[in-house]
Amino acid sequence: MTSTSKDSGDKHLFCFGHGYCCDYLSRTLVSAGGWRISGTTRDPEKKAVLRDRGVRPFTFSETHPLADPLYILRDVTHILISTPPGEEGDPTFLVHAKEICGLKNIEWIGYLSTTGAYGDRGGGWVDETSEVRPTTIRGTRRAKAEAQWLSLYKSKHLPVHIFRLAGIYGPGRSALDSVRAGVARRVDKPGHAFSRIHVDDIVQVLMASIAKPAPGEVYNLCDDEPVPSHEVIDFACKMLGLPSPPLIPFEKVDLAPITRSFYADNKRVRNEKIKTVLGVELKYKNYREGLKACLAEEQNAFGTLRDYTQPI
């Protein structure tokens, strides 16, 4: 599509599902200057929070469409979609695909998916050329949503980009927080490994893609070192000066269904494409570097005298 925006001052990002990643991206764009941000939430009470952060808020869900989408989206240049999919796929696609296809200023559309789209590989490696063959309900729904958005790239030439995210962590959302809250458990499933990605590196990749659009492309977002989750918990405990929980065999641990589903897939995810194609150099190449950065940010926020062995 041809953009009618004249310069960076005309850039307008609209986030369907303005959550953790969208918040970090929005703040980065606003700091860079020349961007306006709008975003949706399913919770009307959260609109005030978004407004306080400089985001123009709207209520949206599959059962609550945007009140006047053509007017609301009329000058949007960039769209980021992180709405969780249901059985029928992505709610943004299901409710507003027609209006989005009719927009005149769109330069970039990003869909935040999951590496769960690859399914279980028995611990083997996958990259962006690997077959999509999800083995969980969550992965199946994300794969369906990916296909929906890519269909609009193919049929309507929308500038769609797919970002398959590994486990997301960052300040306020890391192993440090689960350890402090007393809910961290060290589950031992021999041979199993998780890939993960710090939110700052997610933002890096999205910014690089916005600067260098390549419609139809798919990118894996993860760090360089997939490891078992119990290693991450142990490292977080040591950082906080707390005892590490005992290692519990997977067969004997009582896990919530959604947590157990994460252990159903076992794969290691390659990330070379974001480096070679988008030129991204990860800030945090492994969980150790990332958790140290999370703790340092907390120390900057709360002061160096705070006792980090206590819950916050």
Provide a count of the helices. 11
Q: Structural class, please?
A: alpha/beta
The CATH architecture category of the domain at 8-170 and 195-221 equals: 3-Layer(aba) Sandwich
Q: Point out poorly predicted stretches.
A: 1-8, 304-312
Q: Kindly estimate the percentage of residues that lie in beta strands according to DSSP.
A: 15-25%
CATH topology of the domain at 8-170 and 195-221, which one? Answer: Rossmann fold
Largest beta-sheet details: 7 strands, parallel
The rounded distance between the terminal residues' Cα atoms is: 48 Å
Assembly classification: single chain
CATH H level of the domain at 8-170 and 195-221: which superfamily?
NAD(P)-binding Rossmann-like Domain
What key phrases describe this protein's structure?
alpha/beta; disordered C terminus; globular; 11 helices
Verbal overview:
The protein is an alpha/beta fold. It has a domain of 190 residues: Rossmann fold (3-Layer(aba) Sandwich). 37% of the residues lie in helices and 17% in strands. The protein contains 11 helices and 13 strands. Strands 3-2-1-4-5-7-11 form a 7-stranded parallel sheet, with helices on both faces. A two-stranded parallel ribbon has the order 6-13. Helix 4 links the parallel strand 4 and strand 5.
